[in-house]
């Protein structure tokens, strides 16, 4: 019995490796109806992504990450962090100096492309 169970676990792990299992596969597509009633980010229950000149922040996740790492960070979130399905709010930080505009726009372009490729929809919100 134990040998049979071990065999099934090994087969399951091999299949996951071959087809590329990831945490985000269990998150359903965006439910566009559910998020239409949201008027303020305080009511939003999905991830909130803030774009800075020096990186990206995800509300509830410590620290900033590079734009290229955003999707990896989102994939690590638990399924219950996605009640509206695969959709996030993206907002650029409002306080800027020097050449922040250029860097923020560059980071925004990178993450929007990455999110689209990952099948995550985006709600663009103005900065506070």
Q: What does this molecule look like?
A:
The chain is an alpha/beta fold and 128 residues long. It has one domain (23-124). It has helices at residues 2-19, 70-75, 100-117, and strands at 48-52, 55-58, 87-92, 121-124. A 4-stranded mixed β-sheet has the order 2-1-3-4. Strand 3, helix 3 (100-117) and strand 4 (121-124) form a beta-alpha-beta unit. The longest helix is centred in the first third of the chain and has 18 residues, at 2-19. It is globular and about 40 Å long. The protein starts with a helix and ends with a strand. The model is unreliable at 3-24 (pLDDT under 50).
Low-pLDDT runs of 5+ residues are 3-24
As laid out across the biggest beta sheet, the strand order is 2-1-3-4
Q: How many distinct domains?
A: 1
The major sheet is characterized as: 4 strands, mixed
Output the radius of gyration: 18 Å
The first-to-last residue Cα distance is 59 Å
Number of strands: 4
- Strand proportion: 5-15%
Percent of residues in helices: 25-40%
What is the typical, i.e. mean, pLDDT? 82
């Amino acid at each position: 019995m134990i040998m049979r169970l071990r065999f099934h676990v090994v087969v399951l792990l091999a299949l996951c490796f071959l087809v590329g299992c990831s945490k985000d596969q269990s998150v359903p597509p965006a439910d566009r109806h559910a998020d239409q009633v949201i008027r303020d980010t305080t009511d939003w229950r999905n991830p909130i992504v803030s774009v800075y000149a020096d990186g990206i922040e995800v509300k509830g996740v410590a620290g900033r990450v590079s734009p290229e790492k955003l999707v990896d960070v989102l994939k690590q979130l638990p399924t219950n962090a996605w009640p509206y399905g695969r959709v996030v709010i993206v907002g650029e930080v409002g306080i800027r100096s020097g050449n922040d505009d250029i860097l923020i726009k560059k980071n925004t372009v990178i993450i929007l492309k990455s999110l689209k490729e990952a099948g995550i929809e985006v709600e663009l919100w103005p900065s506070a």
